[in-house]
Amino acid sequence: MKIDCYTHFSFETYLKYLERNSKTPFSYGTLFRYLKTMLDVDSRLALMEKYQVDKHVIIPLPWIESVKEVYEDSVKAHEAAKILNNELANLVNKYSDKFIPVAVIPTTNIDIMLAEYERVIYNLKFKGIYLVVGPTVRPIDDSVYDSLFKKAVQDNVPVWLHPSRPITYSDYINESMSKYGIWQSIGWLMDSSTAMIRLTLSGAFEKYKGIKFIIHHHGALIGLFSKRLNAGFRLFKNLEAFKSTTTITEPFIEHFKNFYVDTATQGFEPLLIQNAYMFFGIDHVLFGTDVPFDENGGYNFTNETICSINSALISDADKEQIFYKNIVQILNLKVN
Question: pTM higher than 0.85, yes or no?
Fold first, then answer.
């Protein structure tokens, strides 16, 4: 069995809503309409059938923060979230055996944030929520999330995190835009890694006991640079000029193993899968592809991710855990 824990889907009604309310050209609309498997359910089902993927966990896109005029208006932010989450609920109602819903959450206003959480989790029966992280949005360790994370723990609801740095966040301060795709290719890995560090060192895993954060792109840079990170934590904690207070116990790097990570490597990368497996542990690695974001609408990423897992030096029993058993346990799914 295969359950893809990190895929994306969107809806024309939502794209049009964002376009109507954006004062600048909305590039995501052009991209999403180019990717047939992003908007067309039959195309998505054909992709799943080809690679024998039983279920897709859907993280709907684009995030509300992608349009400033919507994100900064609490009424519009909530309206956008309801449009997107309702469309996803309708999709899942029609194909409950194929799709598992994760909700977008508006974060502009704490009351609206909690209201939408309760609506999607208690009424629509979604399996999780997602938040975006990056330098242009609210820091993930901001106290505004306190009530949301407590509810997520109480309800055993996982929190997917997705990077969100836009092209307008430049590589250098004297420029107006990022060049050569740096904002996404490297920037998004930085965004996820920054969020992981901020959450961990601020004591999130101690404060919200049992919370489940699911990180995109195989855990970003943390597993790859765990030795460097740990050396830096140890060095800078004693230098007053660089000091940031943390109450967690040493070694700090061990606390990062509380994160769950997917296998979205965007290419044939068995060594990256092995690294995630070795650092985060077999119970915390989940099959995820980032469908449909390759030039063939997800066909490349699905094939390459499956091949990467199968080629990694991991036992067959552990591969089964990655392909479906871990996410089944996290979401308390019933499978045949």
Answer: yes
